[in-house]
Write a structure and sequence with these properties.
This is DUF1508 domain-containing protein. It comes from Flavobacterium caeni. InterPro entries: YegP-like_sf (IPR036913). The protein is α+β, with helices and mostly antiparallel strands. It has one domain: PH-domain like. 25% of the residues lie in helices and 32% in strands. The longest helix has 14 residues. The protein is globular, with a radius of gyration of 17 Å. It starts with a strand and ends in a 12-residue tail after the last helix.
Length: 124
C-alpha cells in the first residue's frame, strides 16, 4: 500500500507526493495555495483513477517519466525512471494501490511532531 504525503513548500504553497509501498516517491503534485486543494485532488485520484491520464515522456537525457493530468491540466510529475518498463511498473503500482492508500499530513510541524509536553514517558 502506498501513501499520499501532504507538505508545505518554502514559498508557503502546499504539495503532495505519492510514495510507494517501499517509501519511494512515485510522483509529486503541482503546488497549491490551499491545503484543501491538495486534499480534493487526492480524494479524486483515490476515487476515480481512470479519469486521469498518464502521459509518458522521455527527456533529453534518456530518462522516462509521466505526467498525471485531468482535462488537459497537469496535476503531477513522476520521478525519473531509467527504463520504460520501470515507468510502467510505477504507473501500475499507482493504479493497484492508490484507492486504499492513506493520507499523511506533514504540512504543519505540530501535526507531525507534537510538543514534548504532550508526550508522556513511563517513568519508574
Amino acid at each position: 500500500m502506498g501513501a499520499f504525503v501532504i507538505s508545505k513548500k518554502l514559498n508557503g504553497d502546499f504539495k503532495f507526493i505519492f510514495a510507494s509501498r517501499k517509501g519511494k516517491t512515485i510522483f509529486t503534485s503541482i503546488g497549491t495555495k490551499h491545503k484543501s486543494d491538495c486534499e480534493l485532488m487526492i480524494a479524486e485520484i483515490k476515487q476515480n483513477t481512470t479519469a486521469f491520464a498518464f502521459t509518458k515522456v522521455r527527456n533529453t537525457g534518456g530518462k522516462f517519466f509521466f505526467r498525471l493530468s485531468k482535462d488537459g491540466l497537469v496535476l503531477a510529475n513522476s520521478r525519473k525512471f531509467t527504463t520504460e518498463l520501470l515507468l510502467q511498473k510505477g504507473i501500475d503500482e499507482i493504479v493497484k494501490y492508490v484507492a486504499e492508500s492513506e493520507t499523511l499530513d506533514f504540512s504543519e510541524p505540530s501535526l507531525a511532531f507534537p510538543d514534548a509536553d504532550t508526550i508522556f514517558l513511563d517513568q519508574e
